[in-house]
Specification:
Layout: H1 19-30, H2 35-51, H3 56-74, H4 78-92, H5 94-118, H6 127-160, H7 164-195, H8 200-243, H9 251-264, H10 270-279, H11 282-303, H12 306-323, H13 329-373, H14 379-403
């Protein structure tokens, strides 16, 4: 694989004579994931089965099985294949595409309805506006049910692979789906109460409850976006801190430290492999390593992007190799800065996305407050339309990118 996994152990270069060059070599060697861990895993497995009294032949077979198991993880790079398969599968899913299209259509209808409600000549009590609201909330109810089901599935998957951050995000989606369901049902109930001639107090109570649920949804969206922004800032700070650490004397060492941080964010380290081997049966090694890798990749994509992941896989390892060569390390340092600059650019884009999402949620919350305080006037509808327009633009842009997304090829010769 391009940068996440290397096979075997690298031979020390003959030109590594002075301490600085030996340091670079050790750092470069330390960036491998499975080379030394593979043999130690086999030895640990053999020792374990010897202690529990198994026969020599069975121990030999288990040793071979363990070696094959670890080798299967390293031969072709399980992470690259997994990401490529997921990138190919998700955008082309007819269900996901249909739900995305329905969400965009619902957002567009909601935006038109809010603009019409703010216009004095039409207003919120216009028959067509009311009918648009019924259609909008009926579709939103279905989308909320889908979000709830998807959130539940994501939570089950995150629990299975021990992804604590993923569990938290799945809970957020569960709550988001539940709020969408409840808000739509309350709106439909409010309209039904008016049509059935129910008391004004009941209709007003349902209307107030609808606004309250919308307000909670806006606060939840603000919290999720704010947490994502914080994670991006934290990741960027750690990365740049290693690159700019003046306590490290040479530029090559600083670059290696930053690249090591990126590499550890994309693959399971030697220490983590040993921990998995020590705490699990051999039959579970492959699954546990795959799960740990997926957890790391999910976290990295939340802080950067799919594009950043492939840049790391494709470009990091060749740069590390050049840094170990005194004749090429100056060029390699420039390439390292370029790579880290590109990663920072992807982080910046994700931060901007979270900031815009937080802004849209804040405007939506302000619209809820305004609608509660001012029962008449165009201000609540204009604020709601502004928030909806932001969400609609982001959803349309994301849908367009997914439909036109291509899986980049990793060109490193070590894949």
């Amino acid at each position: 694989m391009g940068s996440a996994i290397q096979l075997g152990r690298l031979d020390a270069p003959q030109h590594a004579q002075n301490e600085s060059e030996k340091y670079l070599y050790r750092e470069q060697e330390g960036l491998t994931c499975y080379g030394r861990a593979r043999q130690s895993a086999i030895d640990s497995n053999e020792e374990h089965h010897s202690q529990i009294g198994k026969g020599d032949e069975e121990n030999r077979l288990r040793k071979v099985a363990a070696g094959q198991n670890m080798s299967s993880l390293t031969e072709r790079g399980i992470m690259q294949r997994g990401i490529a398969e997921r990138m190919r599968g998700d955008p082309s899913s007819w269900k996901g595409s249909a739900m995305a299209e329905a969400g965009i259509a619902t957002g567009g209808l909601q935006f038109v309805r809010q603009i019409c409600s703010a216009m004095p000549r039409i207003g919120p009590l216009n028959g067509k506006v009311i009918n648009a609201g019924l259609v909008n909330n009926t579709v939103r109810l279905l989308l909320g049910i889908n979000d709830f089901k998807s959130g539940y599935g994501e939570r089950q998957k995150a629990v299975a692979i021990e992804d604590s951050e993923g569990v938290g995000r799945a809970r957020g989606r569960l709550w988001s789906g539940a709020i969408a369901i409840e808000g739509s049902l309350l709106y439909l109930g409010h309209r039904s109460a008016i049509w059935s001639g129910a008391s004004a107090g009941m209709a007003a109570g349902l209307d107030l409850a609808t606004k309250g649920v919308c307000g909670v949804g806006s606060l939840l969206a603000m919290g999720i976006a704010g947490l994502g922004f914080h994670h991006c800032r934290q990741f960027q700070g750690e990365l740049n801190g290693r690159l700019e650490d003046r306590a490290v004397r040479t530029e090559a060492k600083r670059c290696l430290n930053a690249l090591e941080y990126l590499k550890n964010a994309t693959c399971v380290t030697d220490e983590e492999v040993r921990e998995i081997v020590e705490q699990n049966d051999p039959q579970e090694w492959e699954k546990k390593i795959r799960d740990r890798t997926e957890v790391k990749m999910n976290a990295l994509k939340r802080r950067t992007s799919q594009k950043a992941v492939f840049m790391i896989l494709d470009r990091l390892e060749p740069i590390v190799e050049k840094l170990a060569d005194p004749k090429r390390k100056r060029v390699a340092a420039i390439e390292a800065h370029l790579l880290i600059g590109d990663i920072n650019g992807e982080i910046q884009k994700k931060q901007q996305l979270y900031a815009v999402l937080s802004l849209a949620a804040a405007i939506g919350f302000a619209a809820t407050i305004a609608g509660t305080l001012f029962t008449a006037g165009a201000l609540p509808y204009l604020l709601s339309a502004s928030s909806t327009a932001i969400y609609l633009a982001l959803a349309a842009h994301a849908f367009y990118r997914q439909r036109n997304q291509k899986v980049p090829m990793i060109t490193s010769s070590k894949v």
